[in-house]
Design the sequence.
């Protein structure tokens, strides 16, 4: 599930669903894509965070709306490494 480098993380799992708080430590120039096994829901908790998809532009993760991803993606904090935090919920098939 996780190949996004984080400076701290809290993990929990319940059946096919896992929960994690992530805070990317690499900037936008270090691109490693997370390849989800199922749907992942990203909810911004603090700071700013962007999600980038291969061969596409990046988009802000809004503070008031979850983002659902099913294809490879990369997370980064535009204000600097570790300045944003998001809840990542993974639902495995």
Sequence:
């Amino acid at each position: 599930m996780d190949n996004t480098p984080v400076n701290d993380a809290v993990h929990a799992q319940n059946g096919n669903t896992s929960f994690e708080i992530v805070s990317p430590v690499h900037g936008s120039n270090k691109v490693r894509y997370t390849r989800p096994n199922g749907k992942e829901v990203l909810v911004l908790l603090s700071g700013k965070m962007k999600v980038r998809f291969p061969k596409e532009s990046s988009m802000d993760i809004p503070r008031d709306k979850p983002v659902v991803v099913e294809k490879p993606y990369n997370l980064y904090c535009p204000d600097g490494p570790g300045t944003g935090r998001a809840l990542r919920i993974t639902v495995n098939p």
